[in-house]
Amino acid sequence: MAAVGTSAYLTVVLVLRLSGKRTLAELNAFDLVVTVALGSTLATILLSSDVSWSEGALALALLALLQWVVARLTSWRPRVRAVVTAEPTLLLRDGRVLGDALARQRMTVDEVRQAVRATGQGDLSSIAAVVLEPDGTLSVVPVAQAGDRSALDGVTGETA
Known about the structure:
Blueprint: H1 2-19, H2 29-47, H3 53-76, H4 78-84, E1 89-93, E2 96-97, H5 99-105, H6 109-118, E3 127-132, E4 138-142
Antiparallel strand pairs: 1-2, 1-3, 3-4
């Protein structure tokens, strides 16, 4: 059991190392599924006598390969990216909370305020944009740093 557990652990480390930084980066929905599946596969290898180390290693490698294929496809094909990852969404523009966008994303004004406070800002009117990113984080762009707003290109709800 200890040998299988150690081998399985080392295999996961190797697979994660070979699969690249994206597997360990902030997660979009697809990456989260792969990460959970990797953990579940490791648990199965460790706890089930019905699964051999080689079968588990093959499953881990397959998951990493599928993640790599999807990552490649999303970088080459915008339509695939639209299916696999969410688009960033504008939640606040020029100090005004966008209520419809909040409702669609199941977010609250308090969550937007919290994100703004976390950047050290105390006034919503000093904020050019708050964006809900595909990985679920909130990006806050103060008016003083908005520049030409080119960083907001491609954000759902942002108009040119």
